[in-house]
Design a protein that fits this description.
Helix content: 25-40%
Mean pLDDT: 97
Shape: globular
Structural class: alpha/beta
CATH architecture: Alpha-Beta Barrel
Number of helices: 7
Distance between the termini: 14 Å
Order of helices and strands: EHEHEHEEEHEHEHEHEE
CATH class: Alpha Beta
Bound molecules: zinc ion
């Protein structure tokens, strides 16, 4: 199995650390095939400053420079891909198209962090309280946004697909009532979903997506990639082996890795997992 990581950050998002050469050195040490850089994308200039955990539009040259340094350090020993982790918001579509073109992205990760402006589900102010008046309503709004994001047809990988569980609040009963429309949208779009191993180190102490959802993704043959969401060189590709073991378990050891074109960029090959 080839080791890849498509979801990693840079210090331009203001809450990550490390130099490109350090990330590359770690990737080589781990024997990785691909190191994909996908920092938090800027919001449209008229919305800036949106929050304090993303690059600004003015950082675009610095981001290109960061990736160029990574490429120079890697030489031909490692594939370096240019990505972005874009926030999904209603009405953001033309900006996302602009970002893909502007940065020459090999792929885009689409993530829902915000239910509404200023209300990011992973903000620690929600550690002990819901965003709306109930966990059920938070989940409804969150999954509606994920479904709309997939249906936009703009993204190649869905980031931390069930982030809404981060503080451990999960509605009772069968959760498929929330996510079945998203699964249907994934089947139609060819978009891949990441196992985001950073979830093991968050309050929820569980990878994104949860096992029940991951099993459904595998059953529907949705491509799965393994990503660390690293914010430092030490966390690059963290948990990759455990994620492989989990996939082996869920597929009854019928796991295989396959090369697939990114849903919206046929020139980009993603190393994805599925069952035989
Ligand atoms: Zn994210
Ligand atoms: Zn991230």
């Amino acid at each position: 199995m080839q080791r890849t990581d498509y979801h990693t950050h840079t210090p331009l998002c203001l809450h990550a650390e490390g130099e490109p050469e350090q990330f590359v050195a770690r990737a080589l040490e781990l024997g990785m095939l691909t190191y994909g850089i996908a920092d938090h994308a800027p919001m449209p200039p008229e919305m800036e400053p949106y929050d304090n955990w993303r690059m600004r539009c003015a950082d675009a040259p610095a981001y290109r420079e960061w990736i160029a340094r990574a490429r120079a350090a890697a030489d031909s020993r490692l594939h370096i891909l240019t990505g972005l982790e874009c926030d999904w918001l209603p009405g953001i579509e033309s900006w996302v198209r602009h970002l893909r073109h502007e940065f020459g992205c090999d792929y885009l990760i689409g993530s829902v962090h915000y239910l509404r402006r200023g209300e990011s589900v992973d903000d620690s102010v929600y550690a002990n309280r819901t965003i709306t008046d109930s966990t059920e309503r938070d989940w409804q709004l969150y999954w509606q946004a994920v479904t709309d994001m997939i249906n936009s047809g703009l993204f190649d990988i869905v980031g931390h697909i069930d982030l809404v569980k981060i503080w451990g609040r999960v509605p009772q009963g069968d959760l498929s009532r929330y996510y079945t429309p998203a699964l249907d949208a994934l089947e139609r779009s060819g978009t891949a979903v990441e196992i985001n191993t950073a979830g093991w180190h968050k309050h929820c102490a569980e990878q994104y997506p949860a096992c029940g959802l991951l099993r459904e993704l595998l059953d529907r043959r949705i491509p799965i990639v393994i990503n660390s969401d690293a914010h430092s060189p030490a966390h690059l590709s963290r948990g990759w082996r455990q994620a492989i073991d989990l996939l082996q378990e869920l597929t009854g050891h019928a796991l295989q890795q396959r090369e697939i074109p990114a849903a919206h960029n046929p020139h980009t090959i993603l190393h994805a997992y599925g069952s035989l």
